[in-house]
Write a structure and sequence with these properties.
The chain is mainly α and 166 residues long. It has 2 domains: 58 residues, no CATH class; 97 residues, no CATH class. The protein has 8 helices and no strands.
Length: 166
């Protein structure tokens, strides 16, 4: 009888990522609560294996955020914004996008929706860093880019409003 090792899927990533990337990300998520160094190595390995896979950016910036490594999280968010914009064929600068928002459909596909969600993450990170004005600037542009609030930015907008009221 042969033994088969099963990796418990802790997080549901996109069904479009390769099994190899998914396995690395699952192993990294599993290691993140017990061995942060190993988890980081696995996240970085997944990203190096396929830098076009947006889920690797998502997993890595969330990991850094939960480790309170906000500068690292912000760096990966910005890299993720650039990669998703490259894939979507639009400028990565949200200010430029907001000026010409009718030119691009940011609800068109996974890369454009990833951009919106990751822009929300940028605002949240900046808010946590204490850069309230910067966060609000990102959020105001995000409201223009995502009028249907598919990214869920309204939650961060409410949070930012609560901080400025105090």
């Amino acid at each position: 009888m042969s033994s088969v090792a099963f990796v418990e899927e802790r997080v549901m990533f996109s069904p479009n990522i390769s099994a190899e990337i998914n396995n690395l990300l699952q192993a990294a998520v599993a290691a993140s609560s017990v061995d942060q160094s190993r988890a980081e190595t696995l996240f970085l390995q997944a990203q190096a294996l396929d830098s076009r896979c947006l889920q690797t950016y998502f997993a890595l910036y969330k990991f850094y955020f939960f480790q309170k490594r906000l500068a690292d999280a912000e760096r990966i968010v910005i890299a993720g914004l650039k990669e998703s914009a490259r894939q979507g064929g639009f400028p990565s600068d949200y200010r430029q996008l907001a000026q010409n928002r009718q030119k691009w459909n940011l609800y068109a596909n996974d890369s454009t929706l990833f951009y919106l969600y990751t822009l929300k993450a940028l605002a949240f990170i900046r808010l946590r860093q204490g850069f309230t004005t910067d966060a609000q600037l990102v959020l105001s542009h995000l409201q223009q880019l995502d009028p249907e609030d598919l990214s869920g930015a309204s939650v961060i907008i409410d949070l930012a409003a609560g901080i400025t009221e105090s």
